[in-house]
Amino acid sequence: MSRMSLPAIVIFLIGAVGGAYLKDLLFTFEGPLEYGASAAAGAIGGLVGALIGMTIFPKRSDTDE
Q: Which residues lie closer than 8 Å to 25 by C-beta, 6 or more apart?
């Protein structure tokens, strides 16, 4: 998270929630597999959101680095 600007973090969170929501629309599982599938969909959605966010809104680095 230290490499992400505030707008990139917001896009990451939207991607994570959106991934879990899309999973609920497309697939239904029973029992404990539901939690694992939701976690996996949220993780993949968050990863995609983080990549998009860091590409569109890069964090400004210090001039000393």
A: none
